[in-house]
Write a structure and sequence with these properties.
The chain is mostly helical. The protein is 58% helix and 0% strand. It has a single domain, classed as Serine Threonine Protein Phosphatase 5, Tetratricopeptide repeat (Alpha Horseshoe).
Length: 205
């Protein structure tokens, strides 16, 4: 990010633009155009989240979950993930689904609800996780047949079994450069695209 782009982003963020605040948080998290500062990243994500920005809320949740720029707080992270999911974040739905599966008392039904919601919002990863979750829910022929259908669909979409959903904190935040549908500027100053090249993190709703 150039000095001029950073100045424009900071000005927009200071004026209260939630998308700019989220992008500024991402810039601090990745050290784009400035020294990396996770504490500042948290501060700007928090300001954007308070305005109902889904991607900022999701990024903030992962930083609480990973203890990046803030003391790790799983309960706080879960509350933020649920808020992000309500705001439309399929990433939050995917993480919540994974967490339901790996909990001390796994809840595949709850996980399935999150994965179905993510899929309904266009997240192709949800298709594979629906298949994997159905397999965990029982050995009935019907469940296994339905699981097979979802698994085959996931393969056609380019996803494979056995993958782990990566958590996205300050270390790997890229989608702010590739997907931004609010009015704020993107980090690289280019027009926003509708789909990112990766599924690592988001900054716009």
């Amino acid at each position: 990010m150039t000095a001029a782009e950073l100045k424009a982003l900071e000005s927009a963020a200071q004026s209260g633009d939630a998308a700019a605040q989220c992008s500024l948080g991402a810039a601090y998290a990745t050290g784009d155009g400035m020294p990396r500062n996770l504490t500042e990243a948290v501060r700007w994500y928090m300001r954007a989240s308070e305005q109902g920005h889904s991607y900022a809320t999701y990024n903030l949740a992962t930083m609480y979950l990973l203890g990046e720029g803030v003391r790790a707080a799983k309960r706080r992270a879960c509350l933020l993930l649920r808020k992000a999911e309500r705001l439309g974040s399929s990433d939050a739905s995917m993480v919540l689904g994974d967490m339901a599966l790996i909990a001390s008392r796994p809840d595949p039904r709850q996980a399935l609800q999150h994965f179905i919601l993510a899929t309904a919002r266009g997240d192709e990863r949800g298709v594979l996780m629906i298949a994997e979750t159905l397999k965990k829910m029982g050995r009935s022929h019907l469940l296994q047949d339905v699981a097979r259908v979802f698994e085959e669909s996931a393969v056609r979409l380019g996803h494979s079994a056995g993958r782990k959903l990566p958590l996205r904190g300050g270390r790997a935040i890229e989608r702010e450069r590739t997907r931004e549908s609010e009015s704020g500027p993107t980090l690289d100053g280019k027009p926003p695209t509708r789909r990112g090249a990766t599924r690592r993190s988001r900054t716009a709703t």
